[in-house]
Amino acid sequence: MELFFRYVGENWRDLLVFAWQHVAMVAVGLLLALAVGIPLGVLASRSRPLARVILALANILQVFPTLALLVLLMVVFGLGTTTVVIGLFLYSLLPVIRNTYVGLTQVSPTLMEAARGVGMSSLQAMATVQLPLALPFILTGIRIAVVVAIGVATIAPLVGGDGLGREIYSGINMNNPARLYAGAVPAALLALFADLVLERLQKSAKIGK
């Protein structure tokens, strides 16, 4: 542990840069997943046959081993952060789509009929009634996606990406436990912090509901 703390003390600036790169990759991948996944979840909630197709395709993406998927993407997009971000986007899709779909389908049809009865259009009822009630489910999907993405991002260096994984793989290659822990511990803390924050948001959404 003494070597670990000494290494962190001497290299904290570099570690902050790696942590920022890690967070940035996860954030971009997640935002893309939200931009695509929530509309797909909404679409799936409107049609059962379509839901089966959308969820099946998202499941197929999730079944791919992480490294295999990144290698396939690397063939198309080359080495670098772009490949990692696209991989994180694809891995984050399933929890976002599935939880949006489940949340929306759990809303009572009676409430939707009441919303339409007071003159709301389908879009207005979706925006003001269905989505707010489904928010705890959607946040659960986001929570799962974030934690998974932080873990997946640690293997980014294998396809030319940045982030805390650089320290992890440098530590393994150089047989340097201090370096390995300097990458692994912050990555684990990031995952725990993100999970805690999203859990609080999820509880707040349930209370508001």
Automatic annotation (TrEMBL):
N-terminal signal peptide: none
Record's keyword annotation contains Transport: yes
Source species, domain of life: Bacteria
Pfam families cross-referenced by the UniProt entry: BPD_transp_1
InterPro entries documented for this protein: ABC_transp_perm/SBD, MetI-like, MetI-like_sf
SUPFAM superfamilies in the cross-refs: MetI-like
Membrane-protein topology: Multi-pass membrane protein
GO terms (BP aspect): glycine betaine transport; transmembrane transport
Location(s), subcellular: Cell membrane; Membrane
Any one GO cellular component localisation term in the record: plasma membrane
Domain ABC transmembrane type-1: 19-202
Keyword annotations of the record: Membrane, Transmembrane, Transmembrane helix, Transport
Transmembrane segments: 20-43, 64-94, 142-160, 180-198
UniProt family annotation: Belongs to the binding-protein-dependent transport system permease family.
Protein name from the UniProt record: ABC transporter permease
Organism per entry: Cohnella faecalis
